[in-house]
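Issue: copy button drops trailing tokens. Both records pasted manually instead:
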Amino acid sequence: MLNTMRRNISIVIFALLILTSCQYSPYADEYTTEEPLMSAVIGSYVLDKQTISPDLKTIKDSMTGEEVIPRIEFFEDSTYKVEYLPNKLNTVNKEFITK
């Protein structure tokens, strides 16, 4: 009887752990569920350091050493331009810029 009770309690605890360990996102209701209109996306977007890498302190141009701001720009003709997207060394090399 005692072993059965312990087993049942263990199963309940295990089930509760499984149910409560599921990841919850407080922003889940803010995610887009439909493809946006192109007119809503057109514009320039600045990437925060935390968007690129959480431990990134600064982003520097590899040629000048100046601190730069990564940016993506979307145009009406469905093209885009990416500027100053850092590589794995957190520096920007002009060869990697897409225009």
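Record 2 (pasted manually too):
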Amino acid sequence: MARKHGKTGMEAYLDKILQPEVLFTLFAAYILGRMTAGRRARDNGLSPTPPTPKEIKAALDRVTMSKWLEIDAELDARKKIRAIKLLRQATGLGLKDSKEAIEARVRKRDLRLH
């Protein structure tokens, strides 16, 4: 279907954004954004302060019995990663602390079973 006059909306849009002034402005904005994002990452490059053992224990104590049963079911099904995710969701702990807590629970459960 040929148009008798004028350009389609897309053609007009492409003509507009492909003008050198527009391309230069977009490129400059992109470069400035990348530069400032890099500076923010360097300025605040420190990791968050890890929780203390007392804070970890308090977080684990807040986990409900039903959540522990759900976590134990995942461990019984040999789905350790899923168990870690559940614990992280329930406590807000980081990956390392959640993994260590799950591994401690596995060891504790293994001792009770033998």
